[in-house]
Design brief:
Elements: H1 2-9, E1 19-22, E2 27-28, E3 35-40, E4 46-47, E5 53-60, E6 77-84, E7 87-93, H2 95-106, H3 109-118, H4 130-134, E8 149-154, E9 168-169, E10 178-184, H5 187-190, E11 202-211
Length: 212
């Protein structure tokens, strides 16, 4: 009985580390390198999937304001592939469209507002009543000023692998370990075009992932 109590009460996690994982490249754009590859690997550690979120610098490349079509940076990606040990375990096309559809249908207004503030931001005041932001027409992103660079953050809400609580044994995966490949959507699919008044060109740099 004492042994059973010791096993039940003991901690299987002897050490926790917060890490930053960098993408295999410098600059990304639909007009240039359009696939972002982010590998997770370790010789002795597990990955906590719920802890993973991504970050990048978004740069407006024109002397006109840039208006994202949605505050959630997931709109920048048209496809997501996930490989574990070299094997394809997830592949999702029409990624931006599906993400917008499912998050609007399943997330509360408060959660959607939090996602927006992590991304491009929104003109909807955080102190407004919940139904105000819950209206579909109010999901508007903050414009990025001409030539400006902003830091954006996002989570891959549609990834089944990152939406479950079981730790991933990175030390058991051969090759590059766990790899997320994000394919950028065309400029016209991610930005709001308003004649010649809006910028239609952007690029991403310093792409990285934060995790435990």
């Amino acid at each position: 009985r004492q042994r059973q109590m010791w096993i039940r009460d003991s901690s299987w996690c002897t050490h926790k580390r917060d890490a930053t994982v960098f993408a295999l490249g410098n600059l990304y754009s639909p007009a240039g390198v359009s696939m972002i590859s982010i590998p997770f690997g370790s010789s002795s550690e597990w990955l906590v999937p719920e802890s993973v979120y991504f970050s990048a610098l978004f740069t407006n490349k024109e002397a006109k304001p840039c208006v994202p079509a949605d505050p959630d940076p997931n709109l920048l990606f048209e496809r997501m592939d996930v490989r574990m040990g070299g094997q394809l375990v997830e592949s999702l096309t029409e990624f931006a469209r599906c993400n917008t559809l499912f998050t609007r249908l399943t997330m509360s207004a408060a959660k959607k507002l939090q996602v927006a503030q992590m991304g491009f931001g929104t003109a909807v005041p955080a102190t407004s009543a919940v139904p105000y932001f819950d209206s579909a027409q109010n999901h508007k992103a903050e414009p990025v000023a001409a030539g400006a660079t902003v830091r954006i953050f996002w989570k891959l809400h549609l990834s089944a692998l990152l939406s479950q609580h079981r730790w991933l044994p990175l030390f058991c995966l051969s090759g590059q370990g766990l790899v997320f490949n994000l394919f950028l959507a065309p400029f016209a699919d991610s930005l709001v075009k308003n004649g010649t008044t809006n910028s239609m060109t952007w690029e991403l740099s310093d792409v990285q992932a934060k995790c435990s």
